[in-house]
Specification:
Elements lengths: L6 H7 L6 H26 L2 H31 L1
Helix pairs in contact: 2-3
Length: about 80
Amino acid sequence: MRKTRSIIEELNLISVDRDRDHAVENRGEHLIESVIHLIERIEENYSPEIAKDLSNRIVNSIRKVIKEGQRENKDESNS
């Protein structure tokens, strides 16, 4: 049986620039754009109070992940 790949897997393999920093930056830009679109959709489809709450939850979750990543990087560099 032939193993098939998803379109996302194929796109990941076609990376023009295999430079790690470029790939991280590129994915970060896509993530930011996606979050912006998500928040816009939330604002279009929910009441202002609920939209603000959901948007704040998204932003706070992202902050938490970034802080944890920074803490891990700091711990690794001190080792």
